[in-house]
């Protein structure tokens, strides 16, 4: 995510963030976490706009994939990114590991 267009990403189980990554500083991490607390648990995609950024969420089988992007990027790139992260996460951390991991414990492996 070295580009300035995608600035923060995480994978969560329920409301517990298992892995996250950013190269930038800002309040987007706390805004993304607050939005996570309010998301429905149904499998779906959600996009919120705030302060020139989009907070893009993909909820699938109890896991939430999030990427914060600069609003000018649009929706196609962030949604494609979320689909890719979901595939990679399922391959690398799926099964029991992701189901029992504690907060931020997969940062080293997947972050």
From TrEMBL:
**Residue ranges of the Longin domain?**
10-111
Q: What Pfam families has UniProt attached to this entry?
A: Longin
Q: Which GO cellular component does the record give, naming just one?
A: endomembrane system
**How does the record classify its membrane topology?**
Single-pass type IV membrane protein
Alphabetical keyword list: Membrane, Protein transport, Transmembrane, Transmembrane helix, Transport
Domain of life of the organism in this record? Answer: Eukaryota
Main location class: membrane
Localization of this protein: Endomembrane system
Q: Does the keyword Protein transport apply?
A: yes
**SMART domains, A to Z:** Longin (SM01270)
SUPFAM superfamilies in alphabetical order:
SNARE-like
Which ranges does the record mark as transmembrane? none
| PROSITE patterns listed in its UniProt record | LONGIN
Q: Which InterPro entries match?
A: Longin-like_dom_sf, Longin_dom, Synaptobrevin-like_transport
Q: Does the keyword Membrane apply?
A: yes
Q: Which GO BP terms sit in this record?
A: protein transport
State the function annotated in the UniProt record.
Answer: Involved in the targeting and/or fusion of transport vesicles to their target membrane.
Q: Which PANTHER family match?
A: SNARE PROTEINS, VESICLE-ASSOCIATED MEMBRANE PROTEIN 9
Q: What family name appears in the similarity comment? A: Belongs to the synaptobrevin family.
Q: What is this protein called?
A: Putative vesicle-associated membrane protein 726
Q: Which organism is it from?
A: Morus notabilis
Taxonomy of origin reads: Eukaryota, Viridiplantae, Streptophyta, Embryophyta, Tracheophyta
